[in-house]
């Protein structure tokens, strides 16, 4: 996952700094053109060296060692309360621990893998879309869109929203407003109504995403009452 992640970030022209304790992985990263260094981020001084607490706004904890991810997230959160921390976890318990350690988002490779399999069965072309997004420069984007109060989707059941059909977007996750549960990635199991403050994770091309965001700014039409 780490390899695909840094490639995706690179294609988005973001500044990336890679730190790992394995010299071979650092060598491979440098050969691929990344700024990489052999470093243990379990030490506060090293976190400061890479810019935590200064100019780094997002930290990805994607080591295969969960305990290492946990400790790095905890230390980084202590140094920078506003830092966005995205981490991986393989079990529900590990996910809970990562959130307690200060992670803003926790991604389960198994959950995403299962979601991809489901989408492949339900919509065969989606497999190609996901691979295109992650492994090529197709122009596809993944972004979070928050539902404004009074938007046309506010109060509409998710399964009847028609987002994918109307806007040609793929909804891969939804987070309920003011919820600490995190994102629901198996969207086919979401039966509740969409509410203001909910966050949708969508995949699509920029024009379609912009059209969706513009439509969300359109308030619901109010029914006029006859006197």
What keywords describe this structure?
227 residues; alpha/beta; Rossmann fold; Alpha-Beta Plaits; three-stranded parallel beta sheet; 9 helices
Overall CATH architecture of the largest domain: 3-Layer(aba) Sandwich
Oligomer: single chain
How many helices? The count is 9
How do the strands of the widest beta sheet line up side by side?
3-4-5
Helix fraction bin: 25-40%
Q: How many whole angstroms does the radius of gyration measure?
A: 20 Å
By helix and strand content, what is the structural category? alpha/beta
Helix-strand sequence? HEHEHEHEHEHHEHEEH
Query: Runs with pLDDT <50, length 5+?
Result: 116-127, 222-227
Strand count, sense and barrel status of the largest sheet are: 3 strands, parallel
Q: CATH topology of the largest domain, which one?
A: Rossmann fold
What is the topological layout?
Layout (H helix, E strand, L loop, with lengths): L1 H10 L5 E4 L2 H9 L3 E4 L5 H6 L8 E4 L4 H14 L4 E5 L3 H10 L3 E3 L1 H14 L2 H11 L4 E7 L16 H5 L2 E6 L23 E7 H11 L11
Parallel strand pairs: 1-2, 3-4, 4-5
Antiparallel strand pairs: 6-8, 7-8
Helix pairs in contact: 4-5, 6-7
């Amino acid at each position: 996952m780490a390899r695909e992640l840094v490639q995706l970030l690179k294609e988005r022209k973001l500044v990336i700094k890679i730190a790992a304790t394995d010299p071979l992985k650092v060598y491979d990263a440098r050969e691929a053109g990344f700024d990489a260094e052999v470093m243990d981020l379990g030490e506060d001084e090293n976190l400061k060296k890479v810019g935590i607490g200064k100019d780094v706004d997002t930290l990805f904890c994607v080591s295969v060692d969960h305990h290492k991810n946990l400790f790095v997230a905890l230390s980084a959160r202590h140094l920078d309360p506003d830092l966005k921390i995205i981490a991986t976890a393989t079990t529900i318990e590990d996910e809970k621990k990562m959130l307690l350690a200060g992670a803003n988002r926790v991604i389960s490779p198994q959950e995403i893998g299962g979601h991809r399999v489901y989408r492949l069965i339900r919509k065969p072309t989606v497999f190609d879309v996901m691979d295109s997004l992650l492994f090529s420069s197709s122009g596809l984007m993944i972004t979070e869109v928050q539902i404004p109060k009074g938007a046309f989707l506010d109060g509409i059941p998710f399964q009847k929203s028609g987002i994918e059909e109307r806007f040609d977007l793929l909804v891969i996750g939804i987070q309920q407003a003011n919820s600490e549960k995190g994102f629901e990635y198996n969207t086919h199991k979401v039966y509740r109504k969409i509410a203001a403050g909910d966050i949708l994770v969508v995949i699509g091309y920029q024009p379609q995403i912009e059209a969706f965001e513009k439509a969300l700014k359109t308030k619901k039409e109010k029914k006029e009452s006859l006197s």
